[in-house]
Write a structure and sequence with these properties.
CATH topology of the largest domain: Heat Shock Protein 90
Strand content: 15-25%
CATH superfamily of the largest domain: Histidine kinase-like ATPase, C-terminal domain
Number of domains: 4
Number of helices: 9
CATH architecture of the largest domain: 2-Layer Sandwich
Shape: elongated
CATH class of the largest domain: Alpha Beta
Number of strands: 10
Oligomer: single chain
Order of helices and strands: EHEEHHHHEHEEHEEHHEE
């Protein structure tokens, strides 16, 4: 036997759920451990693992299991919800883009138009053809408008699913590679240690090389995880900025030197001539460092063979200081330029060259620069190279 009862709204006119703990305790008889919230909470936090918008409906079900003698052996209680907007909210769709809502709205409006047409025809028109043509025109236009919105809604849902698939593929690949290095290096170290003849210190350089490989893999995996965490913080709007004045020129010089060490084993040259006088910028130094590292890493990664990377800082006395990096790499195809700052996006020519990358560096860079009050952009020619630049407000 299952009893289902519709319950009254548990939110007030301010669209905040009022004292959820007390309501669940009084209405449903839940124990304290089953409801973990006290006092007013936001409408999107009914459960830690569930998002229940205020526009959805809640109901309570009580399932009673009876014994052969008629007694109650077990009673199961649960809160359920049904909502038109819950699933759409997960994909970032507004209510007027939500396909379930649009289907219902289309049906209601169609029926309303037909009923109004029938009433008007019966009362005011002798010839039913005129109102019928008007009604059919209205319904056809309605179908075209709502159908277009439904198609766009499904396209956005499909895009979100594609991004999720790409994210899983990128994350698994990027995290699997350093983990493989861990496994191989540890196997070699264990094999080396187990051999009594190799415990005399003769192979100290080999051990240092293996430990260095482990360290590099650890740093790479940590950067990947931190980047994914930054993406989630940006999406949630919880990323924190510690804004204070600092020297963009000194920071750039330090990062360029670090990347020059990485470029020693390649034929890529990095040029940076620090200007004599550059005003400090006002931003989060740690976040700006991440942006510079991402842009320099892209410039090196996408410059195959010989090439030159040029870093510049310009301070023309305007409210903003401009930073730029130019490379002689693959460039960005015209068809991909509009999406280059998109999350998890990688250009077609990069995929053809099978260059490893996560596709989130430019997305993070754009989010950081824009939230810092600056702008970011690029100029590119496929096959000849790209110039990425950003501006930051000068410190007063």
């Amino acid at each position: 036997m299952i009893e289902i009862q519709m319950i009254k709204r548990v939110w007030n006119f301010e669209f905040r759920i009022s004292n959820l703990f007390g309501i669940c305790d009084l209405e449903f008889g839940f124990l304290n451990k089953e409801v973990r919230f006290h006092g007013p909470i936001k409408p999107y936090s009914v459960y830690p693992h569930q998002r229940v918008p205020v526009k959805d409906f809640l109901w309570y079900s009580r399932k009673k299991l009876y014994t052969p003698m008629g007694g109650i052996s077990q009673e199961q209680k649960k809160i359920h919800y049904f909502g038109l907007f819950s699933e759409c909210g997960r994909f970032g769709l507004h209510w007027w883009q939500c396909p379930p809502f649009l289907f219902i709205a289309m049906g209601i409006l169609s029926i309303t138009i037909m009923v109004v047409t029938a009433v008007l025809t019966a009362r005011y028109f002798e010839d039913p053809e005129i109102p019928t043509v008007i009604a059919v025109s209205f319904v056809a236009g309605l179908f075209l408008i709502i159908g277009n919105l439904i198609i766009r809604g499904f396209e956005k849902i499909a895009q979100a699913n594609r991004m999720k698939t790409e994210f899983i593929s990128i994350a698994s690949h990027q995290l699997r590679t350093p983990l493989s290095v861990f496994k191989w290096t540890l196997d070699l170290m264990v094999r080396d240690i187990s051999d009594a003849e190799k415990k005399t210190g003769i192979h100290q350089q080999e051990f240092e090389r293996l430990v260095g490989a482990l360290t590099d893999s650890t740093e790479r995996m940590a950067r990947m995880v931190n980047a994914l965490l930054d993406v989630s913080r940006i999406e949630a709007g919880t990323i924190v900025f510690d804004v204070h004045p600092f020297s963009l020129s000194d920071l750039t010089r330090q990062e360029v030197e670090n990347f020059r060490e990485l470029a020693d084993g390649t034929k890529v040259k990095i040029n940076f001539d620090a200007p004599s006088a550059v005003r400090p910028v006002s931003a989060d130094k740690l976040r700006v460092t991440m942006v510079i590292q991402n842009l320099l890493d892209n410039a090196m990664r996408y410059t195959p063979g010989e090439g030159t990377i040029t870093v510049q800082i310009e301070d023309s006395g305007e409210p903003f200081v401009t930073w730029s990096v130019s490379d002689q790499g693959l460039g960005v195809p015209k068809s991909d330029r509009a999406r280059i700052f998109g999350k998890f996006f990688r250009a077609d020519n990069v995929k053809r060259e099978k260059i490893v990358g996560s596709g989130i560096g430019l997305y993070i860079a754009r989010s950081i620069i824009e939230k810092s009050g600056g702008t970011i952009g690029f100029e590119s020619e496929e096959g000849k190279g790209s110039t990425f630049w950003f501006t930051l407000p000068a410190a007063v």
